[in-house]
Write a structure and sequence with these properties.
mainly alpha; 4 helices; 45% helix; elongated
Length: 100
């Protein structure tokens, strides 16, 4: 969910992004994220998010953090959960086949 550097580069090159033509250097007078411009603002401008945010998005941003500022990591499914899910699905398939 973190706004990547590649997305920043793309956004400063697009006039419709809200930060088009601005700088990514913090010391610049034309810094893209100076004052009130946040990744969430850009998400709203490019229609990644729509305003007003629904309850889930509002809850997420108030508890976890603002959009574009939260780093996520991939956590693989534990093998025991994967095996259980596979067994349940296989059982459902068998049940459906015998019901026909």
């Amino acid at each position: 969910m973190c706004w990547t550097f590649a997305r920043d580069l793309m956004a400063v090159n697009m006039n419709s992004s809200g930060i088009g033509g601005m700088s990514l250097l913090r010391e610049s007078n034309n810094f893209a994220f100076q004052n009130t411009t946040t990744p969430q603002t850009i998400y709203l401008l490019n229609n990644t998010l729509t305003a007003p945010l629904n309850q889930i998005f509002t809850l997420f941003s108030s508890i976890i953090g603002p959009f574009g500022c939260v780093d996520l990591i991939y956590v693989p499914v534990p093998p025991s959960i994967f095996k259980l899910t596979k067994q349940i699905l296989e059982g459902l398939i068998i049940l459906c086949l015998y019901q026909l």
